[in-house]
Amino acid sequence: MTTHLSINSNENGSIDVSSFGPINLVVIQPTPFCNLDCDYCYLPNRNLKEKLSLDLIEPIFKAIFTSPFVGEFIDICWHAGEPLAVPISYYQEVFKRIDIANQKYNIKQVPIYHSIQTNGILINQAWCDFFKENNICVGVSIDGPDFLHNTHRKTPTGLGTHESVMRGIRYLQENDIYFNIIAVITQESLDYADEMFNFFWENGITDVAFNMEEIEGINETSSLDKVGTEKKYYQFIKQFWELTSQTNDQFKVREFEAICGLICDNQRLSKTDMNHPFAILNIDYLGNFSTFDPELLSVDIKPYGNFILGNVLTDSLESVCDSKKFKQIYKDMLEGVNSCRQSCDYFGVCGGGAGSNKYWENDSFNSTETQACRYRTKIVTDVVLEALENSFGIN
């Protein structure tokens, strides 16, 4: 039987939020500022040297812990700008205030875990000491060897940043701090699967995630949007699978792990965190919040005006669910997911995709296939399935 998702209401006409959440991830923007000028970045206002007010820390965590969406844990990711552009002393005070809010409002004693997604340039011994002291997971953005990385990830004056990022990675390694990396795959990457893998492997980088260059936010075009590129992407992913398979599970690629997990455990998705309300909570440096895709918070999107649902100083998380804006966004999101379910053979490994990709590629949440889902889900699934079938002698 096909499950059709719909919006449910209570007897008083208010939206039923009992199926929303639980919050798995809270993305907090400590600053919109970034010291790089990557040409594929989706974020606007990266030159604003503002930061999240310390006075917003208690309202943020009060809103989280007093909401009905709290689950068994909360992952906090400091992201959406360059989080290390604000000083360690700022985070030391932030963590003190989080501890106070935790004692006051975390009735269920839900554990909190912290991570930081950084470009890596500012990592030094002091930051490593702070990461270790506070058990912070670290994600670093690096696009592979220097000739690929420096093509897109530059300083505002146009200088390459690879050497500086590698210096930061060496600090993490010397301090035995586990980290993962995100590599953005562009048109230039596709001819260099061997070089990318060898770079990571030879430098002790063994936990890798691929983000394709997407059309989103202020990045209105993608170098992957060219005739014949999907075939090249397939060959790139296939070669990376073959190289990864030779490491006796010592090298991980997020995309392979996700698809293999679903296939081997005989699980299928009915939704994703990026199209399910309050599985993800996104908070900008002004205390504005949204749910669904973090990439949507900082931009204006028609017909909704912007994607801000409320502010932690004035709104509870559940109260915004009865707003006209949320209801329209959620309705459009649900209709798009239902259309994907009815029309796509890959739905079980995708769950209806990300609304941000649908909006920026198709101009509507209520739509189906995107370039992003072809690259991120369909091609990867095809490569993994073919490889698994070959290993079991099915073909």
From TrEMBL:
It holds the Pfam family Radical_SAM. Keywords: Iron, Iron-sulfur, Metal-binding, S-adenosyl-L-methionine. The keyword 4Fe-4S does not apply. InterPro entries: Aldolase_TIM, rSAM, rSAM_sf, rSAM_SPASM_GrrM_OscB, Sulphatase_maturase_rSAM. CDD domains: Radical_SAM. GO terms for molecular function: iron-sulfur cluster binding; metal ion binding; oxidoreductase activity. Residues 18-243 form the Radical SAM core domain. This is Arylsulfatase regulatory protein. The lineage of its organism: Bacteria, Bacillati, Cyanobacteriota, Cyanophyceae, Oscillatoriophycideae.
